[in-house]
Automatic annotation (TrEMBL):
<keyword id="KW-0418">Kinase</keyword>
<dbReference type="InterPro" id="IPR011990">
    <property type="entry name" value="TPR-like_helical_dom_sf"/>
</dbReference>
<dbReference type="InterPro" id="IPR010559">
    <property type="entry name" value="Sig_transdc_His_kin_internal"/>
</dbReference>
<feature type="transmembrane region" description="Helical">
    <location>
        <begin position="493"/>
        <end position="513"/>
    </location>
</feature>
<dbReference type="InterPro" id="IPR050640">
    <property type="entry name" value="Bact_2-comp_sensor_kinase"/>
</dbReference>
<keyword id="KW-0808">Transferase</keyword>
<keyword id="KW-0812">Transmembrane</keyword>
<dbReference type="GO" id="GO:0016301">
    <property type="term" value="F:kinase activity"/>
</dbReference>
<feature type="signal peptide">
    <location>
        <begin position="1"/>
        <end position="22"/>
    </location>
</feature>
<keyword id="KW-0732">Signal</keyword>
<dbReference type="InterPro" id="IPR036890">
    <property type="entry name" value="HATPase_C_sf"/>
</dbReference>
<protein>
    <submittedName>
        <fullName>Histidine kinase</fullName>
    </submittedName>
</protein>
<keyword id="KW-0472">Membrane</keyword>
<feature type="repeat" description="TPR">
    <location>
        <begin position="166"/>
        <end position="199"/>
    </location>
</feature>
<feature type="domain" description="Signal transduction histidine kinase internal region">
    <location>
        <begin position="528"/>
        <end position="606"/>
    </location>
</feature>
<dbReference type="InterPro" id="IPR019734">
    <property type="entry name" value="TPR_rpt"/>
</dbReference>
<dbReference type="InterPro" id="IPR008969">
    <property type="entry name" value="CarboxyPept-like_regulatory"/>
</dbReference>
């Protein structure tokens, strides 16, 4: 936190006082004057702009080298050194090393050869490049699109070195990581490493793999990094990253080994808060492993360490330990730690912590109120829940405000204060409505955000490909000029070069074809995200109608019970909403809960039965999330709702053969034809978004992954009554 404030102050000073910035730059240059670095440059003929090879380049009283066939050279130098460029073909050129940037020397036979105007152009471009990156750094946390746009402008500058392109792609990766677009972050970190290998960027790439839930890729990269020469802090980051990845894969023994190595290192470096934080991770790993005694021991050690300092790390350690106490119903210890965390937060600038973070003040007050209510300390609980509500309102944290208001109404109910209970419950319902409206807006904004960011990233990739193509064209033009000069004596070389040119063109065409395929794939991915973003609001809207009907009939207890089960279902739906495929076992759990909720509402309209063949390996098959729900919904709403007597819904999961699973959803309702006839004129005007989205999703997924899903819909009885839907799922 202090580092962020320090950086912000530096940026403000730089903007308000250019003179101070210049003074700081001069002092930095003075400190680095004696530092030896590798100076890169090139020597070109000023008339033909062709590279000049075998040119002598030396530092007065220092290193010596010569240019290669491409006119490039590298030489060890210090700021202030005099660079001497000489050859018998042109007059000697002298150049004073002013900075560490790449230089370009243009020579004219037997004349002064430093092209000052060209040097100035390069320097101006470098200034613009640094300006773009600096601007991107300052705004991307507020506006991702603007930050990406600034980096794309920097990458559009001609003549950037590999190091400069690597810096640009690394910054793009940081931007996408901050905005949780981890797949795009991975792409740009890889491009950065491709231009210039960097251990720091590889560590960032491993973190992006982990955040993208690509745990095995993260582990492989971290293990490769272990074999490199790392700084103590880098080693801590790598070991802790390995521990996190192994926890995610369920390998708690290996994760604990890595965490303990981190704890030893940070303790040796006297980083108390870091040691406390890592101790809590060790406790978490033991807790998930079921080793309660070891977990308790490590949590107690972490609690002792976290009390020694007031930092963000110590706050995180305290909240993690408090969560452990909560799970074990040690409420007094939990409350004491959370109060201490709130006190520490006032020192470490709580307003800079986002609402998504688990350590916010409003979340801690809510959990204290929850713990007090669990002890039947209602008055104290009410005090802290109200604090949580006020803090959440100030920070516009609707999630915490909703939870706190719901819990507050329950406390008043348990306390027996019916008037306060009704008042609190009405306030809770208002916040719930506001929360769902906000959620729909966020879904829409997220869809537009993902589309805009993807479009900008595609432009950047196209720009990088154009640069590579231009470099190929430059090399091609150079080769053609050489061929023209030697055509009378080197016919065989000309023929060979023509063949090479043809091969390059074919490779370019193939690359463009692959680019087109990748673009088509990206469009399909974007379409799937858009369809999924439509499915969730559609499903939420239908389910909320059910809640609304319970409330309308004053059946608050049933509405609360339904809403509780519905929230569990929604959590599962949202967790799977970004995945193209999930295990069939997860989809079965989801459809069981959904069908139970529908039956909960329409007990008198139908009974249901769900059968899973014991021979079916439900973890071996993958299925798109929320694929079955619209078919079950249709069976209930359009099949059995219009039936006079009680209907029967049957869902079966079976294995057709070794590679195919078959899912059958059947009902004995009025049938598709009769259902259409019974619809009102208003209902006939409305189109089913759920079924339309399912058909589009299946079509896109079959195009991307091969024909893995097929659907067959038929009537069960000859009179058109009853409907049967069969889905055939193939293994990946």
């Amino acid at each position: 936190m202090r580092t962020r404030i320090y950086i912000l102050c530096i940026l403000c000073i730089a903007l308000l006082s250019p003179a101070m910035q210049a003074q700081q730059k001069n002092r930095a240059v003075s400190r680095s004057t004696n530092e030896i670095f590798i100076l890169r440059g090139s020597v070109l003929d000023t008339e033909t702009m062709k590279p000049v090879n075998k040119v002598n380049v030396e530092v007065t009283g220092g290193a010596y080298t010569k240019t290669g066939r491409d006119g490039e050279f590298r030489i060890e130098a210090k700021l202030g050194d005099e660079l001497v460029v000489k050859s018998e073909d042109f007059e000697t050129v002298y150049y004073t090393v002013k900075d560490k940037q790449r230089i370009r020397v243009e020579v004219r036979p037997l004349e002064e050869a430093i092209a000052l105007e060209q040097m100035q152009d390069v320097e101006e471009e470098l200034v613009s490049y640094k300006t773009y990156l600096s601007e991107a750094q300052s705004i991307y946390r507020r506006d991702a699109a603007a930050g990406v746009d600034q980096v794309s402008k920097a990458l559009a500058i001609e003549g950037l070195s590999s190091q400069e392109r690597a810096e640009s792609f690394k910054l793009l990766g940081d931007i996408y990581s901050f905005w949780k677009q981890y797949d795009l972050a991975i792409t740009n970190y890889k491009l950065s490493i491709k231009n210039t290998p960097s251990t720091a960027v590889e560590i960032a790439l491993a973190k992006a793999y982990y955040n993208n839930k690509s745990y095995q890729e993260s582990i492989r990269l971290y293990k490769r990094l272990e074999n490199k020469k790392l700084t103590p802090q880098q080693l801590v980051t790598v070991k802790e990253g390995l521990g996190d990845a192994y926890v995610a894969t369920g390998d708690y023994v290996t994760s604990i080994t890595n965490y303990e190595a981190v704890e030893r290192t940070v303790s040796e470096l006297n980083k108390v808060s870091e040691a406390a934080r890592v101790r809590t991770k060790i406790g978490d790993a033991y807790d998930q492993q079921g080793a309660q005694q070891e977990a308790a021991s490590n949590y107690n050690k972490a609690a002792q360490l976290s009390s020694l300092e007031k930092t963000e790390s110590s706050v995180r350690a305290k909240t993690n330990i408090a969560d452990y106490y909560s799970r074990n119903k040690s409420y007094d210890a939990e409350i004491e730690l959370r109060k201490s965390a709130i006190e520490d937060l006032s020192v470490v600038a709580p307003d800079s912590i986002s609402n998504d973070d688990v350590i916010t003040t409003q979340k801690q007050n809510y959990k204290i109120g929850f713990a007090l209510a669990a002890q039947n300390k209602y008055d104290e609980s009410i005090t802290f829940l109200n604090k949580s509500i006020e803090e959440a309102k100030r920070k516009e944290d609707l999630t915490v405000e909703t939870n706190a208001r719901r819990r507050l109404s329950e406390v008043y109910r348990d306390k027996g204060d019916i008037d306060k209970f009704k008042e609190a419950y009405e306030a809770y319902k208002e916040v719930v409505d506001l929360s769902y409206n906000r959620k729909e807006q966020e879904i829409s904004q997220a869809t537009r955000f993902a589309k805009d960011i993807t479009e900008q990233q595609n432009r950047i990739i196209s720009l990088e490909k154009d640069r590579q193509l231009n470099e190929s064209r430059y090399q091609l033009a150079f080769q053609e000029q050489e061929l023209v000069k030697a055509r009378d004596t080197r016919q065989k070389v000309i023929i060979g070069s023509l063949i090479l040119v043809t091969a390059l063109l074919m490779l370019t065409a193939f690359a463009m074809y692959r680019s087109s395929k990748k673009q088509q794939y990206a469009n399909n991915v974007l379409a799937l995200k858009s369809l999924r973003s439509q499915m969730n609001p559609h499903f939420i809207f239908n389910a909320l109608n059910s809640v609304n009907s319970f409330i309308a009939t004053n059946d608050e207890r049933t509405a609360n019970r339904y809403l509780s089960d519905f929230s569990i279902l929604m959590r599962a739906v949202l967790e799977n909403s970004e995945e193209d495929f999930i295990p069939l076992s997860s989809e079965i759990d989801l459809i069981k809960r959904y069908t139970m909720l529908e039956h909960f509402r329409f007990k008198n309209r139908f009974d249901y039965e769900i059968e899973v063949d014991e021979e079916l390996d439900v973890d071996a098959f993958m299925i798109p999330p929320m694929l079955l729900q619209p078919y079950v919904e249709n069976a209930v709403w359009h099949g059995m709702r219009y039936k006079e007597e009680k209907g029967k819904l049957q869902i079966t999961f079976a294995q057709k053969d070794e590679e195919t699973a078959v899912i059958t959803v059947s009902d004995d309702g009025v049938g598709r034809k009769r259902s259409k006839e019974l619809k009102t004129e208003n209902q006939k005007k409305q189109k089913s978004k759920g079924m339309g989205n399912i058909k589009k999703r299946i079509a896109i997924l079959n195009e991307m992954y091969g024909d893995r899903i097929s659907v067959a819909v038929s009537d069960i009885f000859e009179n058109g009554e009853g409907t049967q839907v069969q889905l055939f799922i193939k293994k990946a």
